[in-house]
Amino acid sequence: MNLNTRMPTGSDGTQRIDEQPAFRAYLLELALQPANILAAWKRVRANKGAAGIDGMTIDDFPAWAKDGNWKRIMSELRSGQYQPSPVRRVEIDKPDDSKRQLGIPTIVDRVIQQAIAQVLTPVFDSTFSGNSFGFRPHRNGQQAVKQVRDIIKTGRRFAVDVDLSKFFDR
What we know:
Layout: H1 25-31, H2 34-47, H3 61-79, E1 88-93, E2 99-104, H4 107-124, H5 141-153
Antiparallel strand pairs: 1-2
Helix pairs in contact: 1-4, 2-4
């Protein structure tokens, strides 16, 4: 697919002209900086959480990393050879007596994901709508409710809530 073509007739926009990969090497190197990895590990450790499919716990990770395993992971990431592990699937109860599928990544994958998120979030978050609250830093559902209440006070009578429930499952 050529990303340097004009969009279909009737559109004023042009598609991406830059043929470089979207996730450039310098962003990966930023994600893999020791200070960023340490910050990612601290976030993962603070969130606690269950072991992934490999059975490694939060408490097991430091010794595993010091045994040279983390150095190997970094090398695999830089060479493009790293393969994330499958997630451990569990079901948790919902208030309506139904079940919700939950995928639990390994600790290693959580650290990598967090390190990448710490680099990419500042790049992309500023481009999101001010009306978007889900899974964004310093934003939550209570703020969304307050915004809807404030809009209702201005005389508007409708609010639209879009929940992409099971979007990635289907």
